[in-house]
Design a protein that fits this description.
- This is Fasciclin.
- It comes from Donghicola eburneus.
- InterPro entries: Adhesion/Biosynth-related (IPR050904), FAS1_dom_sf (IPR036378), FAS1_domain (IPR000782).
- Pfam families: Fasciclin (PF02469).
- This protein has about 190 residues and is an alpha+beta fold.
- The chain folds into 2 domains: about 30 residues; about 150 residues, FAS1 domain.
- The chain is about 40% helix and about 20% strand.
- The chain is built from 8 helices and 7 strands; from the N terminus they run ααααβαααβαβββββ.
- It has a 7-stranded mixed beta sheet.
- β3 and β4 form a beta hairpin.
- It is globular.
- The termini are far apart.
- About 30% of the residues are buried.
C-alpha cells in the first residue's frame, strides 16, 4: 500500500512539474494535455487538444477554419468533447452533415465574441453590472451572458438560459483568447 501511495505521489509530482514547465515555457495553461502557444492562432492550438477533437471537426465541417485563423481578435468559449457527447444522441452526427452546415455555423459562432476578453475583463464587467450578469453578443448575433458566482466561478449563459462553466480561462492565442467550457451553447 505504501508503494502505491508513494508511486501515486511521485506521478502527481511529475505531472505537476511537467505542467509547470509547460506553463512557464508557453505562458499558458495546458489544454487537453497539450501546451498552448501564444504565437499560434486559435485553430493551430485547438488541433493539439485531445479535449477538443469534436470542436475541431465541427469547425472544419462548418468551413470556419480560415475565419478562426484570421487576425481577429476573437474570444472563443470552447466546449470540450464531453459537452458535445451530452447533446441528444445523433445531434453531432446530424450537425456534421453537409446539409446541416448553416445550423452548425450558427451554433459554432454562438461561441465566439469579437475582441479579446480575458477572464479579468469578463469578471470586471459582471461586477460592474446592475443585475449580476454581463450581457454581450456572439458573432452569430445571439445574446450571451456571463455570471460570477460568490466562489469566483464564471458561467456563460446562452439565450435559452443554459449555463456553461469556464473550466480553463485565459488560454491566450496570437489572434485572441480561448476559455474552455463544459457545455455547448445553443442558439434559441
Amino acid at each position: 500500500m505504501k508503494t502505491v501511495i508513494a508511486a501515486t505521489a511521485f506521478a502527481l509530482t511529475c505531472a505537476s512539474a511537467a505542467f509547470a514547465a509547460s506553463h512557464s515555457e508557453t505562458g499558458n495553461p495546458m489544454v487537453g494535455g497539450a501546451p498552448m502557444f501564444m504565437d499560434k492562432n486559435i485553430v493551430e492550438n485547438a488541433v493539439n487538444s485531445a479535449d477538443h477533437t469534436t470542436l475541431v471537426a465541427a469547425v472544419q465541417a462548418a468551413g470556419l477554419v480560415d475565419t478562426l485563423q484570421s487576425e481577429g481578435p476573437f474570444t472563443v468559449f470552447a466546449p470540450v468533447n464531453s459537452a458535445f457527447e451530452a447533446l441528444p444522441e445523433g445531434t453531432v452526427e446530424t450537425l456534421l452533415k453537409p446539409e446541416s452546415k448553416d445550423m452548425l455555423v450558427k451554433i459554432l459562432t454562438a461561441h465566439v465574441v469579437a475582441g479579446n476578453w480575458s477572464a479579468e475583463d469578463i469578471t470586471s464587467a459582471v461586477k460592474m453590472s446592475s443585475d449580476g450578469f454581463y450581457h454581450f453578443n456572439a458573432v452569430s448575433g445571439d445574446a450571451l451572458s456571463a455570471q460570477l458566482t460568490p466562489s469566483g466561478r464564471v458561467f456563460i449563459y446562452d439565450e435559452s438560459g443554459n449555463a456553461a462553466e469556464v473550466t480553463t480561462a485565459d488560454v491566450r492565442q496570437s489572434n485572441g483568447v480561448i476559455h474552455v467550457i463544459d457545455k455547448v451553447l445553443l442558439p434559441k
